[in-house]
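Hi all, long-time lurker, first post. I run a small reading group and we've been trying to get comfortable going from sequence to structure in the token notation. Rather than ask abstract questions, I figured I'd post a concrete chain and ask someone more experienced to write out its structure so we can walk through it together at our next meeting. Sequence below, copied exactly:
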Amino acid sequence: MLEKKNYRIIEQNFNSSIGELDIIASTGKTLVFIEVKTRTSDDYGSPSESINTGKILKIRKTASLYLAKKDEKGFQDYRFDIITIMVKKNKIRNASGKINRDRASISDISEIAAELIDSCIIDHIESAF
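-- Answer (accepted) --
Happy to help. Here is the structure in token form:
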């Protein structure tokens, strides 16, 4: 998804003592820190609603640590994006029921993966916070 929008993935799952950054990417001269939230229902709110003030503060502090450690140069700006993924629960159950680990071929798995992706609602919110 990001590559199709001309993003270059620099790093995934950067961990520090403060927290984790899911995706660090670039687009043009902008360094982008991306938080990914997935939900299978909205019983406890939407994926983006789970990103509260405390989480935002933690992401910003972790990004500052990343910038200090990695010495990323050549970027004129940085921003924080969110990718939300809403997966329909019944599609996960159906897909897992179709996989027989002893006999699943690559084409079977590819077909199931495509079906799961088609059953997701994915939203990319640029400059979210």
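A couple of things your group might point at:
The first strand starts at residue 8 and ends at 15.
DSSP finds three helices and five strands in the chain.
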